[in-house]
Write a structure and sequence with these properties.
The complex is a heterodimer of chains A (54) and B (167). Chain A is mostly helical and 54 residues long. Chain A contains 1 helix and 1 strand; from the N terminus they run αβ. By secondary structure, chain B is of the alpha+beta class. In chain B, a hairpin with a 2-residue loop joins strand 2 and strand 3. The chains are: A mainly alpha (54), B alpha+beta (167).
């Protein structure tokens, strides 16, 4: 490990695709799980409590 | 400030996600009409439920076309009336009170779920769909028989439904 192999890159050359992919995956998971719990389980179930919004 | 492109991307996505959450709850409240359990009923004397017009005789009552009201009394360790029979595809309002200690009225697997407090009337209006049977349980520990406290809500096909005493 000599200092000669060191390389400097600019701000936007740093390219963490792994992190981006992971965040994308979490994001997709959040959207899917929210949609399932809210729209299908909560709103889709029978005996939905309704009333006037005060 | 120099923000990385990827960071801008996921910051923006997070904002959109929050807007989506708020929008879906707003849609639920305004579009689908989902409401909370009401707490606007007057209080009553839990020791004298027999003198209250609504709870002296716990029952199902028809108040309009496809609109029903159910007066339920929870006591250790049962619900009256039991079973509760309502017709399919109707709007049902439950008025639930307790004659002794704190109970709850929970229609299993649905959003109809409220605490039942002596002296208070829990009110919830629900849209009833297809025929079927639902269990009703008490989910507030109310005494040694709590685990046996259950009721039945039967949704019968509209043409088979008749009110008690209407035969």
């Amino acid at each position: 490990m000599s200092s000669e192999t060191r390389r400097e890159i600019g701000h936007d050359e740093f390219d963490p695709v792994g992190t981006l992919a992971l965040i994308g995956l979490y994001f997709a998971l959040l959207v899917v799980l929210w949609t399932v719990t809210y729209f299908f389980e909560f709103l889709g179930g029978d005996l939905t409590v309704v009333g006037v919004l005060l | 400030m120099n923000i990385h492109t990827y960071e801008k991307l996921w910051l923006g996505a997070a904002m959109v996600l929050i807007v989506f959450f708020i929008a879906s709850v707003t849609y639920g409240a305004i579009g689908a009409g989902v409401a909370m359990v009401d707490d606007s009923e007057d209080t009553l004397d839990p020791d004298n439920l027999g003198e209250d017009d609504r709870f002296a005789d716990p029952r199902v009552e028809q108040v309009g076309e496809d609109e029903y009201e159910v007066y339920v009394v929870a006591r250790t360790f049962f619900f009256q009336p039991n079973p509760i029979e309502v017709p399919a595809d109707s709007t049902v309002t439950f008025y639930v009170t307790s004659g002794d200690v704190i109970h709850s009225f929970s229609v299993v697997g649905t959003n109809a779920n409220a605490m039942v407090i002596p002296g208070e009337v829990s009110t919830m209006t629900v849209e009833v769909g297809d025929p079927g049977e639902y269990g009703i349980v008490c989910n507030e520990y109310c005494g040694p028989g709590h685990h046996d406290m259950e009721g039945l809500l039967v949704v019968v096909p509209e043409d088979e439904f008749e009110l008690e005493g209407d035969e």
